[in-house]
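USER: Study each token:
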Amino acid sequence: MKISTSIHMFEMDYPIAQAIQRCKSAGFEALDFNYTDYVPRLLSQSWVEEERWAREIREAADRHHIAFTQMHGPFNGPAFDTMYSSRHIEAFLALAERSLRTASILGVPWVVFHPNQISLQSGETYAKQREFNREVYAKLLPAMEETGVGIALENMFDRPRGGGKLRSYCAMPEELAELVGGLNHPLFGACWDTGHGNVQGLNQGESIRALGSLLKATHIQDNSGLSDDHLLPFLGNINWKEVMGGLNDVGYTGDLTYEIHRFFRPIPTDLLDSAMLHAVNTSRHLLSAIGIEAACQ
């Protein structure tokens, strides 16, 4: 289990090659690329331009002897107002396929996507949500098989609405397991986001065990259980013994991948190196709880 992080703790205009170098120097063993951050810019560029850009990033990672092992794909669902419209579905699928091609250039084995909400209102039945998602994601299989890149669908969380909560599809691990299992292909897996699980109020050890061998990726972050804060572990109230015990029990072989940009963002750029070192040491502590010694020392 490698210690990994998304590189989007750096501002968008910060040189990616330098971000890679600093992450490697801090002790990270692998990296996550947050493709969705770059979507507004990439949509104004041709595929040839994006391909050149991706190859430059891959070359920088190779120079520093570190690999991108995860990517966050483009957001869907509410980002397209409603997924009922065939036009919006086609736009999402085209962007998703493009992200898979970029992931292939970067050497990324798993791209994380959010399960689709059919509409912003989320009033559809569970069965309708499940079948809609199966149909949409199955359309990406040709591109997945062509590139060899898998899709890891992420657990979500219910959102406040009025005096109650608006249900989000795949906020529960059983829903996510059913969706991924129903897609029935080795290139489909699950991503467990610890922050989402905490907002949902779940026992995360049990949730991870419910996913079992379907689990291929993680988003490691903390919060107080009230909002999706993306903080370093131990700055919220997540029970990390439960999380790490669950990962150990299912024989998880992926990476421990931070998604903690809100921890890093307030820190001045020239202080990020010490903050990243602290984050690496925090991951080492988590791994030591299940008897794993990180390779970086």
Observations:
- The chain is about 45% helix and 15% strand.
- Residues 3 and 29 are 5 Å apart (CA to CA).
- The longest strand covers residues 67-72.
- Residues 77-84 have pLDDT under 50 and may be disordered.
